[in-house]
Amino acid sequence: MARPNPGSLRATVRAVGIGGHLLFGALIVLGLALWRTIGIGSINNTRPIIVRWWFQRLTPMLGLKIRVQGYSAKHALLVANHISWLDVPVLGSIAPINFLSKSEVRRWPMIGWMSAQIGTLFIKRGGNQTADLIARIAEQVRERQAVAIFPEGTTSDGHQLRRFHPRLLAAAQQPGIDVQPVAIRYGSNHSPDLIAPFIDDDTLIGHLWRVLCQPQTEVEVHFLEIIAGANMDRRTLAANCESQIAQALGITVAADRSNARRRAGEEKRR
């Protein structure tokens, strides 16, 4: 008789626990919605604390071992590199943080609904909503909340940093809003994790299963030096964040493809 695969057995046990935790989270979200509806009081300050508590219990179920360097600003625009959907529970377990996420997440079963209810902002690729999002991000930070964005615009394998899109950093150019770069790495300097990156045509369920099969997934999070965004333009601010994160991770920043295409066009016209 064949022995059960230890990884599959581990993943099954974890998946059952995560399913129960998701249902519990849905009940919490419903409770918060009821609280808001009947007007007991404001939940803006309470909600992030409850969400962090929920993430703190989710991350061990995912097999995540998190090491943190530095301290998260309590109310700032957090600018992080993006490797996986795991980045959200990782950061959310460290501090009370709201997130800006791609609109596709809004359609994920249960997770999308819960994300919307806890204050996540969604951005549609190519959408005409930048001005509204910038205003909402700035409003949340002014309400003494931290908001995390992933300005690479997509996930990467973590071996190289993609260029940051500067448009959403416009929120940081308003008075009183600080920016804190955040560097995220899965694995370590000597052995990067090959399972954690959520890239290419991977599916959420397939990726989750592979993560759960692993005995443990190590994550390093570096909260870096705070920047006063009002003192510089968006492109300079984006470049400053890129530089800090790339240096902390010991990786390079990818070439600007738009500049490369422009230079190629100039060469052809000569």
Strand content: 15-25%
Q: Indicate the percent of residues in helices.
A: 40-55%
In the predicted model, the low-confidence regions spanning at least 5 consecutive residues are 259-270
In DSSP terms (H or I, runs of 4 or more residues), the helix count works out at 8
**Can you name the CATH architecture?**
3-Layer(aba) Sandwich
Main CATH class: Alpha Beta
**Whole-number tally of structural domains:** 1
Q: How confident is the prediction overall: mean pLDDT?
A: 86
Q: Biggest sheet, in brief?
A: 8 strands, mixed
Structural class: alpha/beta
From the alpha-carbon coordinates, what is the Rg to the nearest angstrom?
20 Å
The end-to-end distance, rounded to whole angstroms, is 72 Å
Instruction: Tell the overall outline.
Output: globular
Helix-strand pattern? HHEEHEHEHEEEHEEHEH
CATH topology: Glycerol-3-phosphate (1)-acyltransferase
Q: How many runs of DSSP E, i.e. beta strands?
A: 10
Transmembrane segments: 12-35
Domain Phospholipid/glycerol acyltransferase: 76-187
Subcellular location: Membrane
GO biological process, one term: lipid metabolic process
